[in-house]
Design a protein that fits this description.
Helix content is about 45%, strand content about 15%. Strands 1, 2, 3, 4, 5, 6, 7, 8 and 9 form a nine-stranded parallel β-sheet that branches. Helix 5 runs parallel beside helix 7. It folds into two domains: about 240 residues, Aldolase class I (TIM Barrel); about 60 residues, no CATH class. Strand 7, helix 9 and strand 8 form a beta-alpha-beta unit. It is an alpha/beta fold and about 325 residues long. Bound molecules: flavin mononucleotide.
C-alpha cells in the first residue's frame, strides 16, 4: 500500500538533515520516540549515477530495521540521473522517493540543485516526471516558498502541484530567508487552498519552526486540512520531541551512550566519520540539567569514544 495513504492524519516526520539524520541518529530517535516517517539525508543523483560516487551514495542510503518507514531523498539537476537513481532505489526497501527542491546550500545551488530548481521550473518538472516514470514508488517533493520573494509561492507551488506529487512538503520560507526569519504560518491557509484546488490527492506537509508533537497538534487544530508536520531542529531541543515526554537527565545520557555505541559499530564497517563530527550531537543530550554546561565542555575536549564513555561513567 502507498505509504502516504496509510499514514494517519496528522502524521509527524523527522526532517532530512544533512550531517544529522544519518543512520545512527535515526536509530537514536526511533528509540526515544519515533516519528511516523523518516527521511534519509539527501543524496546526489549524479553521484549515484557515476561509478566513482555510487558506493558512497549507497552508504548514505543505508537504513536500519528501526528507521522504517523511510523515504529516500535525492537532489541534482540532471533528468537522466534522476531516472537512473530512482529506478535503482526501488529495490532498496524505501517507502517512497522525495526530490529536494529547497536546499539553500551555495554549493548545491551552484550545481543547479536544491532551491536553485525554483529558478528553473521546467527542469524541475522534467526531473520529477523522470523520477515518476522510473519507479512504482510514490514520489514526493520538499521545497521552499520561493527563491527570493515570498510571493513566488503563488506560481511555484501550483507548478509543482500540477504534477500531482504524492506529497508536498513546504518549508515556509524562501531560500533567501534561510532560517533567519520566522516561518510564514500566515500562508498555510492559502497553500491549503492551492493544494485543494489543483491536486487534492497530494498530501500537504508543513515544515518550519515546529518544535514538538504538542506544537504540531496545535497547528493541526488550527489547520485541520494539513496532512502532516515535519520537525527538524526541534530534535536538537528535545530528542523526545515526537512524544510529549520530557526526558530526565538519565534518559538523555542513556541516549548519548546509545549514540556512541551505534557510532562505534558503524565505524567498523563504513567509511570514516570523524569523531569531531559526533560533537555536534552532545548538546542534544547534555542539556537542561544542572551542571550540563560544564560537563559538555569536558566532553568537547575528548578525542575518542572511550574517553567520552569514561567521563559519562564518572558523571
Ligand atoms: C543541519 C541541517 C541539514 C539539513 N539538511 C537537509 C537535507 O539534507 N534535505 C532537506 O530537504 N532539508 C535539509 N535541511 C532543512 C530541514 O529539513 C528543514 O526543512 C529546516 O530545518 C526547517 O525545519 P525546522 O525549522 O523544523 O528545522 C537541513 C537543515 C539543517 C538544520
Amino acid at each position: 500500500m502507498n505509504i502516504w495513504e496509510s499514514l494517519k492524519k496528522p502524521f509527524l516526520i523527522l526532517a532530512p538533515m544533512e550531517g544529522v539524520t544519518d543512520i545512527v541518529f535515526r536509530q537514536v530517535i526511533a528509540s526515544a520516540g519515533r516519528p511516523d516517517l523518516f527521511y534519509t539525508e539527501f543524496t546526489n543523483v549524479s553521484s549515484y549515477a557515476s561509478e566513482k560516487g555510487r558506493a558512497n551514495a549507497l552508504e548514505r542510503l543505508e537504513t536500519a530495521p528501526t528507521d522504517s518507514p523511510i523515504i529516500a531523498q535525492i537532489w541534482g539537476k540532471n533528468p537522466e540521473h534522476f531516472s537512473e537513481t530512482t529506478q535503482a532505489l526501488e529495490s532498496l526497501g524505501f517507502s517512497g522517493i522525495d526530490l529536494n527542491f529547497g536546499c539553500p546550500d551555495k554549493h548545491v545551488n551552484k550545481a543547479g540543485g536544491g532551491a536553485a530548481m525554483i529558478k528553473t521550473p521546467e527542469l524541475a518538472v522534467e526531473c520529477f516526471r523522470n523520477a515518476v516514470k522510473s519507479t512504482n514508488l510514490p514520489v514526493s517533493i520538499k521545497t521552499r516558498l520561493g527563491w527570493s520573494n515570498v510571493e513566488e509561492y503563488k506560481t511555484w507551488l501550483p507548478t509543482l502541484l500540477a504534477e500531482h506529487p504524492a506529497a508536498l512538503t513546504v518549508h515556509l520560507r524562501t531560500k533567501k530567508e534561510m532560517s533567519k526569519v520566522p516561518a510564514h504560518y500566515e500562508l498555510i491557509s492559502e497553500i491549503i487552498k492551492l493544494r485543494n484546488e489543483i491536486s487534492p490527492e497530494t498530501k500537504l506537509i508543513i515544515n518550519g519552526d515546529i518544535k514538538n508533537r504538542r506544537h504540531a497538534l496545535e497547528l493541526h487544530e488550527q489547520y485541520p486540512e494539513v496532512d502532516g508536520f515535519m520537525i527538524g531542529r526541534g530534535v536538537f531541543e528535545n530528542p523526545y520531541c515526537f512524544t510529549t515526554h520530557e526526558p530526565t537527565k538519565d534518559e538523555l545520557i542513556k541516549l548519548l551512550k546509545m549514540h556512541l555505541d551505534l557510532y562505534e559499530e558503524y565505524e567498523k564497517t563504513h567509511s570514516h566519520i570523524p569523531y569531531e563530527a559526533l560533537k555536534h550531537f552532545f548538546k542534544i543530550y547534555i542539556n537542561n540539567f544542572p551542571g550540563a554546561k560544564d560537563f559538555r565542555a569536558k566532553l568537547m575536549e575528548t578525542h575518542f569514544v572511550s574517553e567520552a564513555r569514561e567521563l559519562i561513567e564518572n558523571l
